[in-house]
Structure formats: C-alpha cells, structure tokens
Amino acid sequence: MFSEGLINSFRGLETPFYYYDMSLLDRTLGVVKDAAIEHGYHVHYAMKANCNAEILKAVKAAGLGVDAVSGNEVQLAIDSGFGPDQVVFAGVGKSDREISLALGHKIFCFNCESAQELTVINNLAKAQGTIAGVALRINPNVDPKTHKFITTGLEENKFGINPWELDEVMNTIRGSDHVRLKGLHFHIGSQVVDTSRYQLLCEKVNEIQNWFDDRDISIEFVNVGGGLGIDYNRPDVHAIPELRTYFDIFKSHLNLPSGRQLHFELGRSIVGQCGSIISRVLYTKQARKTTFAIIDAGMTELIRPALYQAYHQIDNLTGEGAEDTYDIVGPICETSDAFLRGIHMSKLERGDLVAIRSTGAYAEVMASQYNLRDKAKSYFSSNEFLRD
Ligand code: LLP
Fold first, then answer.
1. Contact 63, 32 (CB under 8 A)
2. N or C: at which end does the chain have fewer Cβ atoms within 10 angstroms?
3. What domains does the chain contain, in order, with CATH numbers?
4. Atom of ligand 1 nearest to the CA of 268
5. How far is the CA of 344 from the centre of ligand 1 (A)?
6. Mean pLDDT throughout 301-311?
7. CA-to-CA distance for 281 and 284, rounded, in angstroms?
8. pLDDT exceeds 90 at position 1
9. What whole-number distance in Å separates Cα of residue 36 and Cα of residue 246?
10. pTM score above 0.90
11. Which of 193, 268, 309, 365 to mutate to test ligand 1, by most ligand atoms within 8 A of the CB atom?
C-alpha cells in the first residue's frame, strides 16, 4: 500500500492527515459501475461516509447518484454537479428548511420515515407549487448482526415506518396532492458482514412488495439501502469488498416485477478502504504491561474506536528494530482516545510515522475540533508532490 517513495514524501508533511488512494477508489467504483450497468441497478453513493470534494468528483465521474441526509448534503451534491434527479434525501428528522431547500432543487425523491413527515412534505410542496417524489422507508425488522449503534432495521430502532402502519400511511398519501409515491426504501444497518442478512432482507422486501402489489399501488423502484461491510482486519487482502457477491444476492433473492428498478445506497464499501490517517509518534511511555505510543492523531480525526470499539489496523511505516508491545493512543484528554491495545510491532520511536487503515469512511466526516484542535488536511495519491 505504501511504497518507500510515498513514505518519504509523507515525512515532510504536517501530521496527522487523511490520505486517499484514488486509484483504489477508482477501481472500487469500477466494480460498482460494472455491476450497476450489467444488472441495470441505480447506485446512490451515501455521501455521509465521505463528502470530500475529490471523492465526490470521482463518484460523479463513475456516474453514481447520491444519498444525502441533510440540507447541506443536498446542497453540496448539487454544487458538486450531481443532477437533482440523481439525489435522494433520507433522514429521520428532516427540518422544514431542509425539506424546502430540497424541494426547490426538485430532487428525485425523499425517503420518508412517518405519516407526519409525509404531511409536512406535502404542505411545504404545496406552498412551493410543486410535487414531491417520495419513497416510504419501511422498517423490515431484520437484524443486521452488526454493532448496536449502527443497527437501523430493527423494530426498536427509530428509523422507518412499521409494516402495520402502512394502511394509515397510504391514507395520508391518498389525501396528499403534493406528494407522489414512487418507491419503497429499506436500510438494515451498516458494516454488515454476514451477507445472509441481505437474503433475509430480500424475503421481507418480497412480502412488503406483495402488500402494495395486491392493492394495485404503483411502485417504480425499490431501494435496499447500503451497509455492506469492509474487512477492517485485512485491508490489503480485501481492498475491494465483495460487491459482486452482494449485488448477486439481490439478483437471486428479490422478486422484482419487470419494469421495477432496484436502487442501492452504498457508502463505506465504496470509500472505506481507500483512506488512511497518517500520524506521527509524539512520545513513547513505558507502563507496567505495555508501552504507550502516543500519536498525534486522536478521536478528533477518527472517533470510531472510541464510539463503537471499532478495530482499525495500524501499520508501522518507519519504525524499525525489535518488536515491542504497544498501546497506540491519541493525545486527547479522554481515556477512550485509544486506537489499539497490546499490539506487537517493530520498535516505535518519537518521530516515527504510522498509518491508521480503512479510514476512508466515517473518519474525516466525523472529525471534531474537541480540545480546540486544528482540522487535519487531506491529501490524495493524485497529488503531484506525492508521486512515488
Ligand atoms: N442508507 C442509509 C439510510 C443509511 O442510514 C446509511 C448509513 C447508508 C445508506 C450507508 O451505509 P454504508 O453503506 O456506509 O454502511 N458512523 C458509523 C456508520 C453510520 C452509518 C449511518 N447510515 C460508522 O462509523 O461505522
């Protein structure tokens, strides 16, 4: 992943920083694009995973649409050149301002999460003299077997409309002249590695489609969300996730009547593996059972370990010599600001560089300035000065 030349060019840069391997991103996008073309699928990139301008440029060049979850994301998508007809807007708590902004752009569709939200969208669309395309986000009650904080498709989660509410929701739609029902939307959770979960989702979607088809309610598309996990344990072995296998599950198990489109909202699986955080060892400190390597990246640049106890591989880029056992921790005044505990690696000394891997998704976008820290810069393999 990191050649000697690249590591040498990292040495002169202020750390920590986000580094993106654009060639890996393009190869991953190529797989998504091929599968989408082959099967006629529509993929909306979940820009919440990473909305860096360079990343959005690459996503747009691959011909994908976007899944936005705030008014600002909708605006950024439009400003980045995505057509309004390529933008879907999801979120359990869309504000009136955000809905009006998206209506003004005439986006493709709102993924709606309740009858009350449908009424609000209808009223705001009426005020603008427009009609909003909507998809109903239905909670399928399928366990994605992932971390509980990123599980969304269980009945106890705040997301979506429960199947038993569909009569009421359809009554609301019938009484709303300014919304037009276009599709059904689902999303069971994120970092889903047990792909049998998607088979279960297909079975639920088939049942729910029947409910609509039995009532002759026209549905143009089904959107099955995203969530495909990446291999945080072996980022070099599985640099590109099993996207083909993932798409094939839906091909085999979803009963789509002819003419009904299939949409996806993938985030992490597209951008996760192309990113790393490059950080410097500030200090090493001997404890009774371990040596602390205190690096200059912290939970402000990558909150996933602190928030979800997430594992990210750390590569020692410059340290040499006999192995030692390290706890690799950040500089923030929180004990949870720790990346890895008790790992063995070649000797780390002040000034050595490390790479925290698989940080293309949900790292830079979740950065904070806690402790009044500076925002870390981003660099790309396409930057001239980083050519090795
Ligand atoms: N669609 C919906 C409705 C979503 O809520 C999400 C993610 C996605 C698509 C994209 O999921 P992906 O393909 O990226 O898994 N911060 C957490 C992840 C939060 C995911 C939120 N929703 C993390 O760092 O693991």
1. no
2. C
3. 4-17+273-380 (2.40.37.10), 23-271 (3.20.20.10)
4. 14
5. 32
6. 97
7. 7
8. no
9. 12
10. yes
11. 268
